[in-house]
């Protein structure tokens, strides 16, 4: 897993709970914690940090991962504002992941192992996204999508009717847009 994702995790935890908390999590996880953005590190290290955070903050691990993704989106887009140019909505951004956003990421971070998504749009308020990855980071995808909705000032209700963590071969993320009142 690219170091930038660890950097994002560090920034989200430090912003919300202070830098000492991040250091405590690294200690708990038995990790050194010097992650360079372009470096590659085992995904197990991220999961060990998530487990430590889950215990320390009394949150389910999936909520920790969602939290990192949701806040992390703002950090990533602040670092690469051009990625949002031309997109007026979260739907448009999410639909560009395979063709534009993640290919761009692969240029910036050579060797990136990014997921591909399959889209099924039933109507304009609903989008289903199939996610297949042996890293099983569907909750991270959920968080990033919620962060994307925050960015465009939209409200999305997100569910996973099908999930690898519950024995399925892939995950289906169902996005339902809620009109802003
Ligand atoms: C709604 C928007 C996005 C979604 C749903 C999404 C989803 C994901 C997921 C689930 C992964 C984990 C890898 C895997 O599952 O195999 C990932 C990896 C990654 N994504 Fe995205 N992503 C989004 C936007 C972005 C943006 C804006 C950036 C900008 C830099 C980005 C950069 C990366 C990087 C660097 C990785 C790590 C690749 C690696 O470790 O080799 N993503 N993305």
Explain the overall architecture:
With 181 residues, this protein is of the alpha+beta class. It folds into two domains: 3-65, no CATH class; 72-178, H-NOX domain. Helices cover 51% and strands 17% of the residues. The protein contains seven helices and four strands. The chain has helices at residues 3-17, 19-29, 43-57, 61-79, 90-95, 97-108, 138-151; strands at residues 116-123, 126-132, 155-162, 171-178. It has a four-stranded antiparallel β-sheet with strand order 1-2-4-3, with helices on one face. The chain is globular, with a radius of gyration of 16 Å. The termini are far apart. Bound molecules: protoporphyrin IX containing FE. Protoporphyrin IX containing FE binds at residues 1-2, 4-5, 76-77, 80, 83, 94, 97, 101-102, 105, 109, 112-115, 133, 135, 137, 140-141, 144-145, 148.
Average pLDDT rating: 96
What's the β-strand tally? 4
Given helix and strand content, the structural type is alpha+beta
Please identify the top-level CATH class of the largest domain. Alpha Beta
Distance between the termini: 39 Å
Low-confidence stretches: none
Predict the CATH topology of the largest domain: H-NOX domain
């Amino acid at each position: 897993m690219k170091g930038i994702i660890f950097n994002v995790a560090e920034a989200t935890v430090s912003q919300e709970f202070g830098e000492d908390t991040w250091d405590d999590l690294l200690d708990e996880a038995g990790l050194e914690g010097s992650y360079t953005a372009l470096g590659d590190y085992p995904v197990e290290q991220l999961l060990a940090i998530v487990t430590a955070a889950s215990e320390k903050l009394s949150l389910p691990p999936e909520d920790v991962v969602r939290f990192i993704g949701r806040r992390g989106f703002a950090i990533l887009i602040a670092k690469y504002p051009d990625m949002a140019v031309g997109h007026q909505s979260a739907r448009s951004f999410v639909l560009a992941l395979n063709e534009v956003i993640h290919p761009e990421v692969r240029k910036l971070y050579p060797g990136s192992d990014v997921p591909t998504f399959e889209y099924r749009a039933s109507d304009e308020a609903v989008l289903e996204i199939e996610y297949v990855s042996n890293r099983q980071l569907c909750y991270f995808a959920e968080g990033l999508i919620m962060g994307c909705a925050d960015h465009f000032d939209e409200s999305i209700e997100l569910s996973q009717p099908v999930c690898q963590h519950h024995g399925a071969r892939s995950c289906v993320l169902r996005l339902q847009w809620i009109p802003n009142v």
